[in-house]
Amino acid sequence: MSRKSVFAALTAFAFTVAASQCFAQSPSKTAGKGQPTERQYAEIINSLFYYIQQNYVDEVDAEKLYEGALKGMLGSLEDPYSVYMDKSEWRSLSDTTVGNFGGVGLQITKPLESTPEKPAYVEVAQPIDNSPGALAGIHAGDFIIRIDGVDTAGITMDEVLNMLRGTVGESVTVTVRRGKTLEFDRTLVRAVIENPTVKYGFIDDTSIGYVQISSFSANTASRVQEALDSFKKSKFTGLIIDLRNNGGGLLSCAVDIADKFIDDGPIVSTKSRISYENTVYSATRKNTTVRGVPVVVLINRASASASEILAGALKDSKTAYLVGEKTYGKGSVQVPSALLLNDGFKITVARYYTPSDTNIDKIGIAPDRAVNFPDFTAEEEKAFADLLSSGEIEKYVEAHSEMSDNDIRTFADELVKSYRLDGRVVRKLIRNEVDRTRPSRLYDIDYDLQLQEAARILKDENFAELLAGARTVAELQAESSGAAEK
Does the annotation mark 305 as catalytic? Predict the structure, then answer.
């Protein structure tokens, strides 16, 4: 071995010994205990932070170390809902809770990890009404696979938000994937986004009230009460609560809304190893606003968290009948906390249980009546893509800006002759284009099979019998478990 090699080896050995001594715990502190104390772990982390800053070969950004440490600690919990939130993510959470923010108007989610088999593309949870994203015809369940040509699988949620948000009036182009193979581009002009969490009105030619809740924020319960007061004045005979594509929000808000329908008994309970997080939220008779009116709740696979709390409470209390698809299955409670750099984090502090004492995490709540939208066949996917790329709808609507519903139906019948698609789907595409320059529709019952069924139940079926035969969340889980064991 050369002198240089011997010197390098001795230097590396000396450095290793010094580093080991730097981070080793004093024998007197750990003797007989086997593991460092919680305080000693914190001291080690603090020491390593400064050691890296002082000794790493390149200059290190302290904020990057800070963010990496927090992400690592929260990530080690292996809980997708306990996460560090950088400035953009924290701002997004705050904006959603407050009810307004800037951008393209798409509520989105993104997996933390990306694999070749399952790329971490951005998924649209819900487009906000009258936003650039909604007016461009982007739907819940669509994937944004590229933003201005950048593959979204390889970038962080923070980078996604920074690309979608920006100066009002400037544009961004997104590539959308719908289904397995259908892809198309949409150019969105950024705008100030207002996010009303509650919209309501009557189903056409009926006395059935319809209230759509898009999220649970600080003012949502009062807006629901406005809707109920309006329906009462018009003597409504039935109510549809639409929780589809509602990713949740404030637990307290879901409880307040459930309390408007349930006379007494539990609404939801939370269970935790922290004593003060063990709480039973119960209904109070004096808060009940609606009695004796049949209620149908619409749910789907994007109904999560606080949506499931409300749906589960109304189902288990035999107050409402659930129609649609099984919900997402998020049965845990997170507390968001702000940090000092305009960032923050969320951490799971409890699990919640429906009134039948059932947790639905990773399971979801099954509807009392399942109604699914049919999937496209390969032939229909091709026809859909051909129709979109043809530009026929855009050109026709531009030349016929005052189209009525009858005009839409007539034009759709013509298109169906060339494109082998369900007329219901084609009419929806035309309405989307027509509505670009009009106030958004509260609902689209011609297209919406789940809403159609909810209205039909309230008009034509014996609602008392339906509720009597409905099973609680606990009963459904027991049946499912028994079937699995067989």
Answer: yes
